[in-house]
Design a protein that fits this description.
This protein is mainly α. It has helices at residues 5-11, 20-28, 33-56, 64-73, 91-102, 107-110, 112-115, 129-140, 147-156, 161-176, 179-187. The protein binds fe (ii) ion. Fe (ii) ion (FE2) binds at residues 38, 42, 74-75, 138. This is Phosphohydrolase.
Length: 192
C-alpha cells in the first residue's frame, strides 16, 4: 500500500503533529496535501509561540489548546475555495468557520478560521489574544513581519510598550529563523 501525499503531509518532517481532531478533519475533508503541510507549519510555530510566551509570562492568560487547534485548522476553508491555496482571497475564512461548525466543532475553536486574516485590523472587535496568536503564527511561519499585528499582540501583553516589543521581537526572530525549512516542506506537496 502506498502512502498518500496527504498522509505524508500529516506525518513527515520534524514539525510537531497536529492535534488528532484537526488531522481527522483534514482527512475527512480530503484536504489538499499542500494545505495540510501549511497547517503543520503554522501549528508548529503556534506551539513555539505559546510555549515561549507561557514560560516567559506565566501571568498571561490564554488558552493554548484553542490557539493550537485554531492554527491547525485556520485555512480549512481552502478545501472549498481551493484557488485561495495559490492566490490571495478571503472566501475561505467564513467558509472554513462554517465547515468546522458543520462538523460539530464548537464556536470557540471554529472562530479562528474566520478571524485569522483580519484579527489585527483596526475595525476588528471582540478579538482575544488567542485570535492574534493564530494570526501571528500564520505570518511568522514564513518569516513575514506585520508591525500592526505585532503591536496589537504587544498591547495584550500588559507590559510597557518597549518591554512588549523586546519580548516579541526576540521570540519572532527566533521563530522566523526556521522559515526556509518550513517553506521547503510546504512547497514539496501538491496543491491538489
Ligand atoms: Fe494560513
Amino acid at each position: 500500500m502506498t502512502t498518500s501525499a496527504l498522509d505524508r503531509a500529516l506525518t513527515e518532517s520534524s514539525l510537531r503533529p497536529l492535534p488528532a481532531a484537526a488531522a481527522e478533519l483534514l482527512l475527512i475533508t480530503n484536504a489538499q496535501p499542500r494545505l495540510a503541510a501549511h497547517l503543520r507549519a503554522v501549528h508548529d510555530v503556534a506551539w513555539t509561540l505559546t510555549d515561549r510566551l507561557g514560560r516567559g509570562r506565566p501571568d498571561l492568560e490564554f488558552d493554548t489548546t484553542s490557539v493550537l487547534f485554531g492554527a491547525a485548522t485556520h485555512d480549512i476553508g481552502k478545501t472549498i475555495h481551493s484557488s485561495e491555496l495559490s492566490q490571495p482571497g478571503h472566501l475561505h475564512e467564513d467558509a472554513g468557520r462554517e465547515l468546522l461548525l458543520s462538523y460539530g466543532v464548537p464556536w470557540h475553536l471554529a472562530r479562528f478560521a474566520g478571524t485569522h486574516g483580519s484579527s489585527w485590523h483596526p475595525d476588528s472587535t471582540g478579538v482575544d489574544l488567542e485570535d492574534l496568536l493564530v494570526s501571528l503564527a500564520d505570518q511568522v511561519w514564513k518569516g513575514a513581519r506585520v508591525p500592526e499585528l505585532e503591536e496589537r499582540v504587544g498591547s495584550q501583553l500588559g507590559a510597557a510598550p518597549w518591554e512588549a516589543f523586546m519580548i516579541l521581537d526576540d521570540l519572532i526572530q527566533d521563530v522566523a529563523a526556521g522559515a526556509d525549512t518550513r517553506l521547503a516542506f510546504q512547497s514539496a506537496f501538491p496543491v491538489s
